[in-house]
Amino acid sequence: MRVIEDKCVGCGLCAQDCPLGLIEIVDKKARINEGCVNCMTCFKVCPKEALEKEEEIKPGVVKCNNCPIMCEIPPDKVGACQRFVNKNGKLIRNIPLHLFEDVKDVVGEDFAPSIKEPLITGIGAGTTYPDFKPAPYIVEAKVDGVDVVTVVTEAPLSYSGIKVKIDTEKNIGEEGADVYFEKRKVGHITTEEYGSKMLSLGGANLLTGKDGMKVARVICDIANRKEVKLKIAKGSELIIKVGDPPIIDGEIMGKMRVGCGSASMGLFGPFFKEAADEVIVIDSHITGLFSEHPAGTALLVPYSGVILKARKSTLGRYFGDHGEGWGGTSITDPIAIVKGVDKTIARPGMTLLITETTGERAAFYKLGKDYKFHQEEMPPNAAKAVEVIASTCEKSRVSAIYVGGAGGSARAGVVRYPLKLSKAVHEKKAKLTVGGAPTFVLPGGGITFMVNVEQVKVNAFSWVPTPATVAPIEYTMKKEDYIEMGGHAEAIKPFSLIKKR
Ligand code: SF4
Ligand code: SF4
Fold first, then answer.
1. Best mutation site among 13, 26, 32, 49 for ligand 1, i.e. most ligand atoms within 8 A of its Cβ?
2. CATH fit for domain 2-93, picks 1.20.1440.230, 3.90.1170.40, 3.40.50.1000, 3.30.70.20
């Protein structure tokens, strides 16, 4: 990269963002030190357009094609991600390939086979109160020759909530926007995940607030796979039921996108090559322009001359926006994504396919003598490419993860030394399950767990008006470990005495 000194005001934004820390401000001007790889980060952040790419590739420089940035790495230097080094004209990953053996100690031990499944579940167990009383059921049995104990309770948890995953590329509202249930605030939209919008509902602060009852109810209804109607502040109305497609503003969501517009280029490149001279996949994350994208280049597709009305990220990849239009962007007429054509490259008669990342909507155009695109009927090869995208997409659905904090008083009914139980859970000496389903226990202090509600029997969750949600939880461990952590030995009953109702 080169600094255009007349334009540079020395603001330092490029210096802050250069991934290799190569830029410094000297006498109120940016100076790029040795090792620049032309990653264009500084170009993207400069508000004064004071940086430009040096087109000439210096001797010994190797171009990396491991990602869309395409760093040009000088000898003995690393790329922008600091993963690849140019050693004698060859790009080498600067840490070796690791076998599982190499990481085994970091991954840690798994649970012993004998304690992987609880002897009984907490579903229907009831609760003992106050918490220091032994849990309702403490059961022992021999498993694979090992004495095992399972302690169960239906634990009221004020630290609880639910994360809801809604597969859709439709814009439902701003990240951080409040979510309402029967006009009461029950949560907010959290960060979007791959092809899905995420809601975070409940949590201790909302549960203990003035609308806590509604919050507890909505968590349980979703966890118990009931249909729930939610409203996003300044956003959509949602009807959600775990396992079913979401209904957003009255429309049943059909497919979740297969990937962003750029990923589609890599996934369906051979079909796009046959579909038209140019293919645009409109997407709120990254819109792809096939003939400029590395996927098109690798398939020897010449650049079409189409210029997009969008902010460029890297070759053939353009940032999208959010709205009610195609691919979750604000574009309602697909051809509006095209700013124009380079008349020295584009030729009248060239064809253009524009599609969404789900293939649900697509349009086909031909460039007229007026250098404007005119819509035409979709020919079979273009229709096939769209059909391949659509058939690769998964069905949209709603999923949910219940999150609970059991590291408080709920431990006292299990053992007399609660800290020992927390440690045992983290050290995989005591296995925590919910209704028999495996949990993921968040690292760090306490016992905060997550469970996929679809692995828990329907209607196993309930709530009490304290308000708190109630989850069936089980701790399973070796009897000797249970006794060591101050387990309620006097309350242990043989499994054979447990009567199935
Ligand atoms: S192109 Fe990348 S490596 Fe070079 S100066 Fe700019 S930000 Fe740094
Ligand atoms: S993988 Fe790393 S070195 Fe290669 S182009 Fe991308 S950022 Fe640069």
1. 32
2. 3.30.70.20
